[in-house]
Design goal:
A hairpin with a 2-residue loop joins strand 1 and strand 2. The protein is globular and about 55 Å long. It has 13 helices and 15 strands.
């Protein structure tokens, strides 16, 4: 590819620094010129393999032709009416499709919004309206968004919460089970009971909210026995269970919703990111009687459930069916786990390889000591990989986790090339 005239990453970074608010971070000092499937090219013409996927937004890859065509066709009909003023059939069809996909043997309804944080905000509103209770219990390490309510729910201070408080009240945090870091399922459940003793009585709690696999928190998978016990605790006290699937949804974990793999069903599910292949839309799907608790006018938004987003999301569902991407997610996850374990065998700094479906991560420690998370090495590996042409993201409470969110549509050949670049990056830093 030809380099774009008069453009360079360095020059654009200079312009960005002068024009864009400092609080908007940037993982790599790279400016994209174009992208296709799991590859992208910067303004200087350099090619990269994308293992970040726009932070789990591109399960169907960059610029999938089916999705692009659906968006173009919709844009030629109408781009916006505001669903609460003049409705349109794609919104209804998308609700029907997601209601059918969501786990649980009960009637379901949906509402569509614009962002993941907006979905979580509305899930809390719906839960409070249904239960007529104020309290929400979230979990340490969880990430739920950047609005004030979702920051209150988020269980990670830096960089998300620094300087933005005070946050909304009646939000409490229990321990998330994490065997690698010494938190057992029993200890996590006991921490919920302690909240009931010390902070808020269960009769005032509207909902528990948790990610089936923590995203920013480090890709820790919620153990099934923990979820089952939490469901029982919720049922005992009339509390709702919310699965925040903004990152885990849309097939990333091998099922459309990760909570399909739970032994129990959540009452509400939030979804966004990959559900529309890069176009802004989010949603809340849940029990019909719960979803119907807010009065007309209590839910919605100017751009909520936009026609463009609905068309893109329906195209994503079609692509998943046509290309059997749920099976591909499971197979890709196995390939990634095997490849990362091969790298870990020769890298003592890698203390854990884990994941669910194709939502996979490695965690780095100083000399493999799980008591000493190695954020510095993590940053170096991510930077070295980018220098070699592989885009990665770090995450985790301690900043020592490297996550893989490569598009499910990536070929085995490309995935293996990316894994080889990761191995080379570790080797270069020895």
């Amino acid at each position: 590819m030809q380099r774009e005239p008069h453009l360079s990453n360095a020059a654009l970074m200079t312009r960005r620094s002068a024009a864009v608010a400092r609080g908007v971070g940037q993982a790599h000092e790279i400016f994209v010129s174009r992208a296709a499937n799991a590859e992208l090219w910067d303004v200087e013409g350099r090619r990269y393999i994308d293992f970040a996927g726009g932070i789990a937004v591109l399960n169907t890859g960059h610029c999938h032709p089916e999705i692009t065509a659906a968006v173009k066709a919709q844009a030629e009909l109408y781009s916006h009416t505001c669903f609460q003023v003049l409705a349109y059939e794609p919104y209804v069809e998308l609700a029907e499709r997601l209601n059918a996909l969501a786990p649980g043997a009960f009637a379901k309804k949906s509402v569509f919004l614009s962002t993941g944080a907006e979905a979580v905000e509305n899930a809390v509103k719906i839960a409070r309206a249904h239960t007529r209770r104020p309290g929400v219990i979230a979990f340490t390490g969880g990430y739920h968004g950047r609005t004030m309510m979702t920051l209150g729910l988020t269980g990670k201070v830096a960089p998300y919460k620094v300087g933005f408080g005070p946050f909304p009240g009646e939000v409490f945090h229990a321990l998330y089970p994490n065997a690698l870091h010494g938190v057992s399922v029993d200890e996590a459940l006991h921490s919920v009971e302690l909240l009931f003793k010390n902070d808020i009585e269960p009769e005032r709690v509207a909902a528990f909210i948790l990610e089936p696999v923590q995203g920013e928190g480090g890709f820790y998978v919620a153990p099934n026995d923990f979820v089952e016990s939490l469901r029982a605790l919720a049922d005992r006290h009339g509390i709702l269970l919310i699965a925040d699937e903004v990152q885990t949804g849309a097939g990333r974990t091998g099922t459309w919703f990760a909570s399909e793999q739970w032994p129990v069903a959540p009452d509400l599910i939030t979804t966004a990111k990959s559900m529309a292949g890069g176009f802004p839309i989010s949603g809340v799907v849940g029990r019909a009687e719960v979803m119907d608790a807010p009065a007309p006018g209590g839910l919605g938004g100017t751009y909520a459930g936009s026609p463009i987003g609905c068309a893109a999301a329906l195209a994503v569902l079609k692509v998943f069916d046509d290309e059997q991407l749920l099976a591909r997610s499971r197979a890709l996850g196995e390939r990634l786990m095997a490849g990362l374990r091969r790298i870990a065998a020769g890298e003592p700094s890698i203390g854990d390889v884990r994941g669910l479906g194709a939502m996979v991560a490695i965690e780095l420690f100083e000399e493999g000591d799980t008591g000493r998370p190695d954020a510095a090495l993590t940053r170096k590996v991510v930077a070295e990989a980018a220098r070699r042409g592989l885009i990665l993201l770090s995450c985790g409470t301690y900043g020592n986790v490297i996550r893989v969110l490569v598009p499910l549509t990536a070929s085995d050949l490309l995935v293996d090339e990316g894994l080889a670049l990761l191995a080379d990056s570790f080797a270069a830093l020895r």
